[in-house]
Amino acid sequence: MKKLISCLLALSALAAAPAARAITLSGEIRNVDGDNDGFADDLRIQRINFDVTAGTSLFFDMLVWESTGVDLNGDGELTGYDNYLMLLTSGGAFLTANDDSGATFGDGSVHHYDSTINYTFGTAGTYVITLGQLAYSSAEAMQGYQANRAYYDYNGQNLDHGDWRLTINVNSGSISNISYQVDNAAVPDTATVGALLGAALLGLVACKRRR
User: Fold this and answer.
1) Which residues contact 22 (CB under 8 A, 6 or more apart)?
2) Domains of the chain (ranges plus CATH)?
3) What is the pLDDT, as a whole number, of residue 104?
4) For burial by CB atoms within 10 Å, which of 5, 122, 136, 169 has the most?
């Protein structure tokens, strides 16, 4: 719950600062029961949905290699894995992907396993950026997991998860309505956050009046 609230606050801050040219998101990939067979033996693929205007140019910059001592989520564990980044339309059509990159070091990365994608969107609409360990297909990206695939930590630790940080650099145009899954709970966009907060305040007022 604390993690979900942190994400909501971060997205609310984005709404309050529309002039920002970089957006930072974070989370983790881990083994989950994606196919509902009763076993957590499927590796999560993180899906991040967003809207862009026509002509928007974005640079997606991953940081997953924590071996330098950068603890991305403050859990006291330093993870590391070979990230794979894929960009698709909301309908699942493949646009581009990247495994290893030499352009990722601007965000503090020290390893080429931290992949990047630089892309200009010719058409306005909703798109999906996905990230996971090693290669996966477009179909797996859209379903959100790889069946019967165990997470493997490259730092040699016996861990069941890998942490990630994604920096979205906005070169031109605009991006909005960002949403993604955190611990199986959807993180709504900033408009939804505002509606939820407003509903909560109305609820508090109603409770006080009843008392």
Assistant:
1) 167, 168, 169, 170
2) 2-210 (2.60.120.380)
3) 82
4) 136
